[in-house]
Amino acid sequence: MKRLETCIRNIPDFPKPGIQFKDITPLIKDPVMLRLAVKQLIQPFLDNSITAVAGIEARGFIFASLAAWELDIGFIPLRKPGKLPYAVETISYDLEYGSATLEIHIDAVSKDDRILLIDDLIATGGTVAAGCALIEKLGAEVVACAFVVELDYLKGRDKLANRNIHALIHYQV
Ligand code: AMP
User: How far is the CA of 89 from the centre of ligand 1 (A)?
Assistant: First the structure.
Protein backbone atom coordinates (compact mmCIF):
# COMPACT_ATOMS: atom_id res chain seq x y z
CA MET A 1 0.00 0.00 0.00
CA LYS A 2 1.34 3.41 -1.02
CA ARG A 3 2.19 5.67 1.93
CA LEU A 4 0.82 9.18 2.31
CA GLU A 5 4.27 10.74 2.63
CA THR A 6 5.24 9.54 -0.84
CA CYS A 7 2.54 11.87 -2.20
CA ILE A 8 4.00 15.07 -0.72
CA ARG A 9 6.33 16.86 -3.13
CA ASN A 10 9.07 19.08 -1.73
CA ILE A 11 9.67 22.30 -3.66
CA PRO A 12 12.87 24.03 -2.50
CA ASP A 13 12.93 27.83 -2.30
CA PHE A 14 9.19 28.34 -2.94
CA PRO A 15 7.68 30.91 -2.57
CA LYS A 16 10.97 32.43 -1.40
CA PRO A 17 14.57 31.33 -0.81
CA GLY A 18 15.04 29.02 2.16
CA ILE A 19 11.45 27.68 2.30
CA GLN A 20 10.97 23.95 1.68
CA PHE A 21 7.41 24.05 0.37
CA LYS A 22 5.40 20.86 0.96
CA ASP A 23 3.17 20.50 -2.10
CA ILE A 24 0.03 18.47 -1.40
CA THR A 25 -1.28 18.45 -4.98
CA PRO A 26 0.06 14.94 -5.78
CA LEU A 27 -1.83 13.68 -2.73
CA ILE A 28 -5.16 15.33 -3.52
CA LYS A 29 -5.20 14.18 -7.13
CA ASP A 30 -4.95 10.54 -6.01
CA PRO A 31 -8.45 9.47 -4.88
CA VAL A 32 -7.19 6.62 -2.68
CA MET A 33 -4.65 8.81 -0.92
CA LEU A 34 -7.10 11.71 -0.56
CA ARG A 35 -9.66 9.45 1.09
CA LEU A 36 -6.97 7.91 3.32
CA ALA A 37 -5.77 11.35 4.45
CA VAL A 38 -9.29 12.55 5.29
CA LYS A 39 -10.11 9.31 7.16
CA GLN A 40 -6.90 9.57 9.17
CA LEU A 41 -7.47 13.26 9.95
CA ILE A 42 -10.83 12.58 11.60
CA GLN A 43 -10.18 9.10 13.03
CA PRO A 44 -9.07 10.19 16.58
CA PHE A 45 -12.11 12.45 16.93
CA LEU A 46 -14.97 10.17 15.93
CA ASP A 47 -16.14 9.93 19.56
CA ASN A 48 -15.52 13.57 20.47
CA SER A 49 -18.98 14.96 19.63
CA ILE A 50 -17.53 17.43 17.12
CA THR A 51 -20.29 19.74 15.87
CA ALA A 52 -18.47 21.44 12.96
CA VAL A 53 -15.15 21.41 11.09
CA ALA A 54 -13.37 24.72 10.53
CA GLY A 55 -10.78 25.10 7.77
CA ILE A 56 -8.13 27.71 7.04
CA GLU A 57 -8.00 29.30 3.56
CA ALA A 58 -7.01 28.01 1.11
CA ARG A 59 -5.51 24.52 1.23
CA GLY A 60 -7.12 23.84 4.60
CA PHE A 61 -10.52 24.12 2.89
CA ILE A 62 -9.83 21.02 0.81
CA PHE A 63 -9.31 18.70 3.77
CA ALA A 64 -11.66 20.42 6.21
CA SER A 65 -14.67 20.37 3.89
CA LEU A 66 -14.12 16.70 3.06
CA ALA A 67 -13.75 15.94 6.78
CA ALA A 68 -17.02 17.76 7.48
CA TRP A 69 -18.70 15.75 4.72
CA GLU A 70 -17.34 12.50 6.14
CA LEU A 71 -18.49 13.42 9.68
CA ASP A 72 -21.86 14.57 8.32
CA ILE A 73 -21.51 18.00 9.96
CA GLY A 74 -21.02 21.54 8.68
CA PHE A 75 -17.94 23.38 7.41
CA ILE A 76 -16.78 26.80 8.65
CA PRO A 77 -14.33 28.87 6.58
CA LEU A 78 -11.61 30.98 8.23
CA ARG A 79 -10.64 33.39 5.47
CA LYS A 80 -8.10 35.99 4.50
CA PRO A 81 -9.23 39.60 5.03
CA GLY A 82 -11.94 41.11 2.86
CA LYS A 83 -13.31 37.82 1.50
CA LEU A 84 -16.25 37.16 3.83
CA PRO A 85 -19.35 39.19 2.91
CA TYR A 86 -21.17 39.39 6.28
CA ALA A 87 -20.01 40.89 9.62
CA VAL A 88 -16.72 39.38 10.76
CA GLU A 89 -14.54 38.83 13.79
CA THR A 90 -10.87 39.46 12.93
CA ILE A 91 -7.48 38.47 14.29
CA SER A 92 -3.99 39.54 13.20
CA TYR A 93 -0.90 37.49 13.99
CA ASP A 94 2.84 37.47 13.33
CA LEU A 95 4.44 35.48 10.56
CA GLU A 96 8.16 34.72 10.30
CA TYR A 97 8.37 37.91 8.25
CA GLY A 98 5.50 40.38 8.58
CA SER A 99 1.97 39.68 9.72
CA ALA A 100 -1.30 38.18 8.51
CA THR A 101 -5.01 38.37 9.29
CA LEU A 102 -7.80 35.80 9.48
CA GLU A 103 -11.54 36.43 9.60
CA ILE A 104 -14.67 34.47 10.53
CA HIS A 105 -18.35 35.36 10.21
CA ILE A 106 -19.66 36.42 13.61
CA ASP A 107 -22.48 33.87 13.43
CA ALA A 108 -20.31 30.99 12.14
CA VAL A 109 -20.13 29.27 15.53
CA SER A 110 -21.96 29.49 18.84
CA LYS A 111 -21.17 28.69 22.46
CA ASP A 112 -22.32 25.08 22.21
CA ASP A 113 -20.07 24.27 19.26
CA ARG A 114 -17.20 21.78 19.54
CA ILE A 115 -14.87 22.49 16.62
CA LEU A 116 -12.26 20.42 14.83
CA LEU A 117 -9.88 22.91 13.15
CA ILE A 118 -8.05 21.62 10.07
CA ASP A 119 -5.24 23.03 7.93
CA ASP A 120 -2.98 21.33 5.41
CA LEU A 121 0.22 22.06 7.33
CA ILE A 122 1.54 23.39 10.64
CA ALA A 123 4.86 25.22 10.44
CA THR A 124 5.49 27.83 13.19
CA GLY A 125 1.93 27.38 14.50
CA GLY A 126 1.01 31.05 14.22
CA THR A 127 -1.81 30.52 11.73
CA VAL A 128 -3.57 27.78 13.64
CA ALA A 129 -3.08 29.53 17.00
CA ALA A 130 -4.81 32.56 15.48
CA GLY A 131 -7.57 30.31 14.10
CA CYS A 132 -8.17 28.84 17.56
CA ALA A 133 -8.26 32.30 19.13
CA LEU A 134 -10.75 33.51 16.52
CA ILE A 135 -13.15 30.60 17.09
CA GLU A 136 -12.84 30.96 20.85
CA LYS A 137 -13.51 34.72 20.64
CA LEU A 138 -16.97 33.71 19.46
CA GLY A 139 -17.40 31.40 22.45
CA ALA A 140 -17.03 27.99 20.80
CA GLU A 141 -14.55 25.32 21.90
CA VAL A 142 -11.70 24.09 19.69
CA VAL A 143 -11.59 20.41 20.63
CA ALA A 144 -8.61 19.55 18.42
CA CYS A 145 -6.46 20.71 15.51
CA ALA A 146 -5.51 18.34 12.69
CA PHE A 147 -2.98 18.64 9.87
CA VAL A 148 -1.79 16.53 6.98
CA VAL A 149 1.80 17.75 7.50
CA GLU A 150 3.72 18.95 10.56
CA LEU A 151 7.17 20.55 10.26
CA ASP A 152 8.34 19.31 13.67
CA TYR A 153 11.56 21.32 13.56
CA LEU A 154 9.63 24.63 13.65
CA LYS A 155 8.02 23.61 16.97
CA GLY A 156 4.55 24.90 16.09
CA ARG A 157 3.11 22.81 18.92
CA ASP A 158 4.79 25.13 21.41
CA LYS A 159 2.28 27.83 20.41
CA LEU A 160 -0.58 25.41 21.09
CA ALA A 161 0.24 24.25 24.61
CA ASN A 162 -2.42 21.95 26.10
CA ARG A 163 -4.28 21.59 22.82
CA ASN A 164 -5.07 18.28 21.19
CA ILE A 165 -2.88 18.21 18.03
CA HIS A 166 -2.96 15.50 15.36
CA ALA A 167 -0.69 15.34 12.29
CA LEU A 168 -0.34 12.58 9.71
CA ILE A 169 3.13 13.21 8.27
CA HIS A 170 6.11 14.57 10.20
CA TYR A 171 9.28 16.18 8.91
CA GLN A 172 12.20 16.37 11.36
CA VAL A 173 14.43 18.50 9.12
P1 AMP B 1 2.51 28.70 10.24
O2 AMP B 1 1.59 29.81 10.64
O3 AMP B 1 3.95 29.10 10.26
O4 AMP B 1 2.25 27.43 11.04
O5 AMP B 1 2.21 28.37 8.72
C6 AMP B 1 1.17 27.52 8.36
C7 AMP B 1 0.42 28.02 7.15
O8 AMP B 1 1.32 28.42 6.11
C9 AMP B 1 -0.42 26.90 6.57
O10 AMP B 1 -1.67 27.45 6.17
C11 AMP B 1 0.38 26.36 5.40
O12 AMP B 1 -0.45 26.09 4.29
C13 AMP B 1 1.40 27.46 5.07
N14 AMP B 1 2.79 26.96 5.06
C15 AMP B 1 3.78 27.37 5.90
N16 AMP B 1 4.93 26.77 5.62
C17 AMP B 1 4.69 25.94 4.58
C18 AMP B 1 5.51 25.00 3.86
N19 AMP B 1 6.80 24.82 4.13
N20 AMP B 1 4.92 24.29 2.86
C21 AMP B 1 3.61 24.47 2.57
N22 AMP B 1 2.80 25.34 3.23
C23 AMP B 1 3.32 26.07 4.22
Answer: 22
